[in-house]
Amino acid sequence: KGENSMAAEGSGGGGGGRKTPLPHNPRERGAAKFLTGLPSRGNFSSSSISSNLGGLRVYVCEHDTNPPEGQVIETDTTNILIRHLQLKKKDSEAKDAGSRTPGESGKGKRV
């Protein structure tokens, strides 16, 4: 028996049953061989809307969506890390200022 007859019997190599031949096209390389047999673009780009979509509803806004008069939205251009450090410093200074007695200076005491 030759190699072809062994593959037909299912006893060649892997040891476990039937072998299913994979469709092999020598022209296909790389990812293209994995894409064969998948639906084509035409199946997803149909111009007619299917009737089984559950009746898509369009949202119609009934209230005024204009911003309040005089509202100006500005973007803070300071880096978020720098802004965080500045806020922490400001919070710690406010905390320190609240815990000092009126006669104390900002610098530490020398004893």
UniProtKB/TrEMBL annotation:
Residue ranges, annotated region (Disordered): 1-46, 87-111
Q: Which residues, if any, are the signal sequence?
A: none
Q: Gene Ontology terms, cellular component aspect?
A: Cul4-RING E3 ubiquitin ligase complex
Amino acid composition bias (Basic and acidic residues), ranges on this chain: 88-98
Domain DET1- and DDB1-associated protein residue range list: 33-90
Gene Ontology biological-process annotations: positive regulation of proteasomal ubiquitin-dependent protein catabolic process
Matching Pfam families, A to Z?
DDA1
Top-level taxon: Eukaryota
* Family note: Belongs to the DDA1 family.
UniProt-recorded name of the protein:
DET1- and DDB1-associated protein 1 domain-containing protein
Q: What is the source species?
A: Aegilops tauschii subsp. strangulata (Goatgrass)
